[in-house]
Design brief:
3-stranded antiparallel sheet, two-stranded parallel sheet, globular, single chain, alpha+beta
Length: 174
């Protein structure tokens, strides 16, 4: 296990790797910071950190980079199912917690409900790359983000999903 810090426009983040895959990515002041990072994890260079650096540069430049490096979050079966579904939310799009629960239901065999969804999303150990910031409340309200709502707003604005004058996402009516 190794870690490395990166400076981003929204603050310093810490990345963790098992030597091959990205296993953690947290803003240093976010809730649940380092939840899967063992104490005294050494710092060091790894190929996955070089790939992550390129991804972060592209992402914060407003491009839509592809995650083409290994990502390996670990958690309960429910959390892993939720994180897997989060990875399917395209850049610049959002899903509600209810929509997320509907997508997770066939994977785990039952609807886990909004509270369980919020808990799993909130404990996402690989922020940004697993885009938990793209989950919003049922009415378009920006709710819950372990990195803070100010960052969530900034990320959704970067992705073109939120205007500079609004703190709500306008949901399309099909």
């Amino acid at each position: 296990m190794r870690q490395k810090q990166f400076v981003t426009p929204l603050g310093t983040i810490t990345a963790a790797s098992d030597g091959t895959a990205l296993t953690g990515l947290w803003f240093t002041d976010q809730q649940y910071y380092g939840s899967t990072l063992p104490d005294a994890t050494p710092t060091g260079e790894l190929p996955v950190f070089e790939q992550l650096a390129a991804w972060l540069t592209a992402y914060f430049a407003g491009r839509q980079p592809t995650v083409d490096f290994p990502v390996r979050p670990t958690g309960t079966p429910l959390r892993e199912a939720v994180w897997s579904v989060l990875r399917t939310i395209p850049y610049g799009e959002v899903r509600t917690y209810g929509e997320l629960a509907t997508l997770v239901t066939p994977i785990i065999g039952h609807n886990p409900g909004a509270r369980a969804m919020g808990n799993a999303v909130g404990h996402n150990p690989i922020s940004l790359v697993i885009p938990c910031h793209r989950v919003i409340g049922q009415t378009g309200d920006l709710v819950g983000y372990a990195g803070g709502l100010t960052r969530k707003k900034a990320l959704l604005r970067l992705e073109g999903r939120l205007s500079e004058v609004s703190d709500r996402v306008v949901l399309e009516k099909n």
